Amino acid sequence: MYEKDFLKQLFHKIYTIRIFETECIKLYRQGLIRGYFHPYVGEEATAVGVCSALAEDDYIISTHRGHGHCIARGAQIDRMVAELLGKKTGYCSGLGGSMHIADVQAGNLGANGIVGGGIPIGVGAALGISIRKEKKVVAIFFSDGAANNGVFAESLNLAAIWNLPAIFLLENNHYAVSTPIEQSSRNQNLYERATGYGVHALAVDGNNVIEVFEQTKDARQMCIKGKGPVLIEAKTYRHGGHHVNDPGAYMPKDRLDYFKSKDPVTIAKKHLKEQGKMSESEIEKIEKEVETTMERAIDFAKESPELSFAEFNQMVMGY
Amino acid sequence: MTVKTKTKSSESDSSKRMLLYREALNEALKEEMKRDSTVFLMGEGIAERGGSYKVTVDLLKEFGPERVIDTPIAEASFVGAGVGAAITGMRPVVEILFIDFTLLTLDQVINQAAKYNFMTGGIGKVPLVLRTQGGVGNGLAAQHSQSLEAIFYHIPGLRVVMPSSPYDAKGLLKTAIRADDPVVFIEHKLLYMNEGHVPQDDYTIDFGKADIKRTGSDVTLVAWSNMVPKSLAAAEKLAQQGIDVEVVDPRTLNPLDKKTILDSVRKTEHVVIVQEAIRRGGIASDIASIIQQQAFDYLDAPIEIVAGINTPIPFNLNLEKLSVPQVNDIIEAVKRVL
């Protein structure tokens, strides 16, 4: 059984991601957010389960679908919205945007616009930990799409031969942009690939925050004991297309319905009611609080200044 | 006037301690690893074997396998690992055996390392050194002989360093390791066995500071890496014909010491730029454009560029020589501008 406060915290994070994404999609449709926006809706439990099992000075490395990781790792959503709006108060002064959002000081080494690009970087962070003989781990988020990129194989091998404290967190949302996993992988249990490299690997229900949390906690312990790396395949599903402007018409309705019936928000709420003995009205209070925080975050971002061209020039002068 | 007084005495005086270029690099690595425990090395065959060009020889013995790491042949990922270690507090020096193989790592170098500081709004630092070597050298053919510095020169956020002497090799490598930016440190395979004076002291050479390898008043030769010894040889021959050549070695291409180059051009009023890389899209063309824009009124003749011809490097030794600038090509170009 879990403490009520812990379950509350999990739900709070999952719901924050959901509200952040749905509200920011509105801002996108209003033309306030530009560029690419890859929503994490439907996958929230994976980020929250993983990050809740990490210690404060562990690292994560994220992906282009990275808002969830960032929030789960503890980022302030006002600075996140500001980044998405291209404002100076954003995490990257508005220079990175959605695909490059990072919170280096909090150990979030950053999202990545290149599928698979973050995997070796995560391995390097783990290598540094190993050289410094610290008791820390790196959670490397990547996707089923990235698992077909060469650096995945190379990086897994490096982490294996050097026994690195790295948790490879394969978020299998079943689509590489629009290509379904059936067309890109013969064996759709992607975790089994790790076994060939001598790496302990398993699959988990990525929509169940408790399951993800438990497996990540164990994986972290293994890494700390020098028995890393570990690969966890979190099976999950996007609730929409690749990005906001992709309606996802290629996603079969029955499958989408199935995964929506296993919505991470609903599951987390169920944990809260059944194990946390929390009433509907108490849960509504949490939801209201999250929604208010989001409203304030949007106001903060809208009112924030932009980096001036002079400030920008000053920064890039030496490049 | 003898050549000896024209060429920098600090590097040619044999009464001082002499080291090979590769030994100077080795000494820089050793000193920096002793000074700073976050410095570590990664690469193919660098530990027990000491590297293909013996730059990392004996470092395994001194610093152990945790800081001198042999990697699998997986350039993209171990360069990426260098990036990850760098952004989390280490100072990795990653060796890529041949510059030709850096092409396997370009996502990590160009999309990741070069842009990380920028994408994080100036917060993230990437103190990564990518050591590699390029250029022609005794029949290594098309995939082991390229001069690819222009690729990295083109990318904002990368430092590009190309030492031509043992003295510069040591001082610049130490600066590269202490820098907070990703540095592409390009050695030349024909320079490793060159000897020169290298002080035992802990000295560094600032980036963006060119070195006048030979002073002269008639014409400026701008050259880097292995084109420096070739330009100095050309200068010596030209001196015998009464032509007084100044050889300017920028040493770092980004940042580029425009001032020293422009001051020299304003003095000599004639300029020849020498690069081993093919001419098209090269750094020489960019330097020429800077000179014509900022010192046009001083020029007495069009700027000459001596460069490799537009070809992959041929295996045939005679054709290999003809594909890249030789001493005589430089001499002829100098005569054309005078």
Relative helix content of chain A: 40-55%
What is the CATH H-level superfamily of chain A? Thiamin diphosphate (ThDP)-binding fold, Pyr/PP domains
Q: What kind of sheet is the major sheet of chain B? A: 7 strands, mixed
Strand content of chain B: 15-25%
Query: How do the SSEs of chain B run, as a string of H and E?
Result: HEHEHEHEHEHEHEEEEHEEHEHEHH
Tell me the helix content of chain B: 25-40%
**Widest beta sheet: strand line-up of chain B:** 3-2-4-5-7-6-12
- CATH superfamily membership of the largest domain in chain B: Thiamin diphosphate (ThDP)-binding fold, Pyr/PP domains
Rg of chain B (C-alpha, Å): 20 Å
Average pLDDT for all residues of chain A: 97
Low-pLDDT residue spans of chain A = none
Do you know the CATH topology of the largest domain in chain B?
Rossmann fold
Number of helices of chain B: 12
C-alpha termini separation of chain A: 54 Å
- How would you sum up the global shape of chain A? globular
What is shown here, in short?
Chain A has 319 residues and is α/β, with parallel strands linked by helices. Chain A is built from 13 helices and seven strands. In chain A, the strands form two sheets. A five-stranded parallel sheet of chain A has the order 1-2-3-7-6, with helices on both faces.
Give your account of this protein's structure:
The complex is a heterodimer of chains A (about 325) and B (about 350). By secondary structure, chain A is α/β, with parallel strands linked by helices. Chain A is built from 13 helices and seven strands. Chain A has one domain (about 5-305): 3-Layer(aba) Sandwich (Rossmann fold), CATH 3.40.50. Chain A is about 50% helix and about 10% strand. In chain A, helix 2 runs parallel beside helix 9 (about 210-225). The longest helix of chain A is centred in the first third of the chain and has 26 residues, at about 5-30. The radius of gyration of chain A is 19 Å and the shape is globular. Chain A starts with a helix and ends with a helix. The model of chain A has no long low-confidence stretch (mean pLDDT about 95). Chain B has about 350 residues and is an alpha/beta fold. Chain B folds into two domains: about 20-195, Rossmann fold; about 210-335, Rossmann fold. Chain B is about 35% helix and about 20% strand. Chain B contains twelve helices and 14 strands. In chain B, the strands form three sheets. In chain B, strands 3-2-4-5-7-6-12 form a seven-stranded mixed β-sheet, sandwiched between helices. A five-stranded mixed β-sheet of chain B has the order 9-11-10-13-14, with helices on both faces. In chain B, strands 1-8 form a two-stranded antiparallel sheet. In chain B, helix 4 packs parallel to helix 5 (about 105-120). The chains are: A alpha/beta (about 325), B alpha/beta (about 350). At the A-B interface, helix 5 and helix 6 of A face helix 4 and helix 5 of B.
